[in-house]
Amino acid sequence: MAEDRVAKENLRRRFQQNQEDCTITVLALLPTATENIVDALPVEQITQDLQRKKAERLGRSAGTSDVAAPAPSSGPSSVTDDDGKSLASLQTDSYVHASQTTALSREGEELGAPSLSKSKAQLWNDLKIASITRSFTLLYTLSLLTLLTRIQLNLLGRRNYLSSVVSLASHSPQDPTISLENRDDDGAEQSWGNDFETNRKFLTFSWWLLHRGWRDVKERVEVAVKTVFGPLDPREDIPMEKLSALILDVRRQVEGATPKERRSHKWLPYLLPPHGEEKTVLRESGVLKSHPNVHPSSVSVPSSSSTQPLVQTPSPSPSSPLRRLLDETSDLVDSPPFTRIFTLLLDTTFSHLADHQIRTDAYRLRDPSSIPRVQDTPEPDPGLAKAKLANILAVVTRQAHAIGNGVPNPYAQAIEGVKELEAFAAVIYSSHFEFEALGAGGVEGDQETQRRERLREDKEEDKGPADAATSMFDDVWGRIIGQ
To answer: Do 353 and 251 form a contact (C-beta atoms < 8 A)?
Structure first.
């Protein structure tokens, strides 16, 4: 019993460390996608074009100021005043590196004609669509990257753990001696998929989302944003409730309006390349170039010379550990639990953007998570609060950089608070132990059929990961020692 307790605690400790590694990995990879998305949606460039438009207008009006001074207005702020305030807010809230500012200014001088040929209304519409699309795309990319990383590292963590268990079990408990015999060539670790090269290649497949998948996400989000936010005027007052409804409408168009539509939408093409294009990822990511001594089963070398660089990289064979890892990842991404957890992550991140950041910065309302103090003045009715769309855009523009480059990252922290995410990871980490522990060859043949049958049953029953995680995680050690 004591040994079982120690073993189970060791399993839990490994699992928790694995989840911390997932968070660190996501934060390390996210800036790559952020840079690509920010470059594709240059909100700062559009802001500078608007400011140049305003400067030209002020310069022209200055020439006529000596002829006739305008009468002071006692009425409400003019459209020009509103635009000036909104632009100032956008300039203040936007985050731009100094080098980026110089580059944007130079680009504006050299290529300013096409952008400045647009009217002010056209530029404002471009700014509206680009700023909202950018932040929303980053939220989707962050959530997808989080789930992909959890799947990858927990699949590898499970296999590495089983490898260590098999290694310990290979020593007889009656033999207390320590063997110094070299067993590096027995192939035990490689048969469990615990070899460095397989793990390295498998983790490299996040390259697809960071460099290709985000583009499809952006296009899908942009279409929905144009449909929902396109007709709105930046000077329009938007009630808080209407903004929430607009964001929800965008999400329905991107994800699906009903649970059935959400389950039917496939996110796998955003995360992994189609069959036959795996070699593109391995080549473009630089894995093969930086480490030419790869396993001969996964790389073809020219027969004329063994020292020539690699020129062909066929897709992983059906029996290879890498192929099995990719197939299991695909099964998990296409499963109903993935869709449900993905929806929960998006609920959390969009709520943080709208119900916390926009609420406090644009609508000047109290953060709902804060505790009211006695000396606080009564808060106005949130249902009556309004903010100009231009001011909301300023907050959304700033939050794009918080989503992609925040240190600490409040959106990643909000995701960590979704308990169902850890339950989903526990299911991955502890599932199919009985199949993989049957032999060092992995899941093949009948075992693979059983694994897919179980996943199909889970899809049909649509069990919640939180319910399944507890029972699966608690008895996982019993499954192993019972083999």
So the answer is: no
